[in-house]
Records
---
Amino acid sequence: MASMATDGLIPLHMLTDVPDWPQARLRDALLIRAPDGAGEDWPHCITLPASTPFQMRHGAGCACCSREPAVMTLAAVFQERVMGKRPPFREVVLVMHPEERHALRDILENDVLVRARYRLAGQE
């Protein structure tokens, strides 16, 4: 079973398909999926909100731009987890469309709040 590393960060797996994991691992994982994605059979599964055309055109902190839905969702589920409003999870699986993978990885790697809470898989 995967768990938090000694750095205390939650592993974040960025995938283009819902993984076929054993039930024991599913119990401790949170699946975040695209609105049209699979994964309804996961015990802990949420759907990303739709993207907005006002998404980060000017850069971080701009009042007219909204943050990437995945970034907002990761921040929200972490806060819910800390406050006891969401079952605890040891890892997160973010499933996205293949064409979004590189751009979204860049956004997540450069978001200070995401980097403070999550460790992108492959960056151990």
---
Amino acid sequence: MNKKLTVLSLALIASLSACASQPEDIAATDIGDGIYRNHSCEQLSERELHYQQQLEALSANQRSAATGDAWGVFLLGLPLSSMSGNDREAEIAVSRGHLNEIEREQVRKSCS
């Protein structure tokens, strides 16, 4: 009986770890220094707006995937959204990385 419970617990933990993360829990990816060095303050603002809008859309998709995974694990024991390619974790991390680099460059150039 204990062995079955242990196996069941491990299976549940494994399936939960495969679930899509909530967007606020996803860290930025380091995209490298200096990729925005040749941009003007105006260009930096335009890129910042682009990545903010992209991050908002990706975050909405990621929340939906995380909710779908939670329901899938609860009902079927499978993170269906992640399995079907709806997890946007990498794209969110890259967008956050761009936003971080843009912010660093804006500070460096004293953009207002």
